[in-house]
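Is magnesium ion placement plausible here? Inputs below.
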Amino acid sequence: MSVTAPVFRLDGVGKRYGETTALDGVTLAADANEYMSLIGPSGSGKTVLLRTIAGFEAPDSGTIEVMGRDVTHVPAHQRGIGFVFQNFALFPHMTVYDNVAFGLANGDAPPERGTIVRRVNDILKLVGLSGLENRGIHQISGGQKQRVALARTLVTEPKLILLDEPLGALDANLRARMRNELRAIRER
Ligand code: ADP
Ligand code: MG
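Reply from A.M.:
I modeled the complex. C-alpha cells:
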C-alpha cells in the first residue's frame, strides 16, 4: 500500500498585523478526499488562514506544503489551489459563461477554444446553471452567483478548493440545498 502525502500541511504558521496576532503557530493537515471545515467566531483568523494557504498572504513563520511540495514562497497562481471568495468576486460586466471561462482562457497555458467551450459547459451543467450562460451577473440570484463562483473555480481543476463562508450569503433554504449540493459535487 502506498502512503500519500496530505493534500496540504501547515506547520507552525504564524501571521501578525501590527499588534494583532491573526494566526498563532497553526499546525494542521488534510488528507486526500477529506472535507475539512474551520469553525470559529468572527475575527478568529479563518479568512487569514485560507488566504495564507492559497498564497494571497505570506506567513511570518512556519511552512505550507501542498501535495507534498513546500509552497511557502510559491506565488498563489502556481499552487494549484482554487479559492471561492466570501463575496464571490465575480466580474459584474461579464456573462455567466465568460465569468467561468475567464480563468481557463487567461491561465498560464490556455486550452484550445473548443476545449474551453466543452469544459465550461460541463461545469455549468454540474452546478445546475445550464441555460443561464448568457445572463449578466446582475440578472441572477444570490444562489446562482454562488454557483458561478464555484464553477469558475472548479473549471480550472484545482487539487484543493478553499471556500470562505460559502453559505454565508444565502438564505436558510438555499443554504441547506447548497450544502447538499457541495457534498454531491465533491463526490463527483
Ligand atoms: P475571520 O475568522 O472572521 O475570517 P479574519 O481572518 O478575517 O477573521 O481576521 C483575523 C484577525 O486578523 C482579525 O483581528 C482581523 O482584524 C485581522 N486582520 C485580517 N486581515 C487584516 C489586514 N489586512 N490588516 C490588519 N488586520 C487584519
Ligand atoms: Mg472571514
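Short version: The first strand starts at residue 8 and ends at 17.
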